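REQUEST FORM: STRUCTURE PREDICTION
Request ID: SP-0412
Submitted by: Lab K.M.
Chain count: 1
Length (residues): 116
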Amino acid sequence: SNFEQLVDRPDRDSLVMFMSPSCPHCRAARPGWDLLAEDLRRRGVESMQVAVFDSSANEVPEGFTVEAVPTFYFVAAGLRDTPMLYEGPTDEGSWLDFARRFASFPAALLDEDDEL
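STATUS: Completed
RESULT:
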């Protein structure tokens, strides 16, 4: 499936937002999610992708549990079968902190003034 091709990559981690366009909480979280994606793109980070999955129009992939939306997961590069559920605040900085904690390629996510 397209989802499998998107997240099952040995060279890239994935942050996935499972959502529904009609969900008010999803609509509220989406601008920050899009900002995170844009920030990583602008910084040239190719080892982390930020994806959106419409769970109202598509069957939730095996291995993911979506009881309510929005639901967020981190999928480490090459580890599609062990997605990690994110349960923290829904803002760009919190998502980025979570991604940095588990990133397969953490140096790519550092700010220019950060150190390992």
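NOTES: DSSP finds three helices and four strands in the chain.
Reviewed by: T.R.
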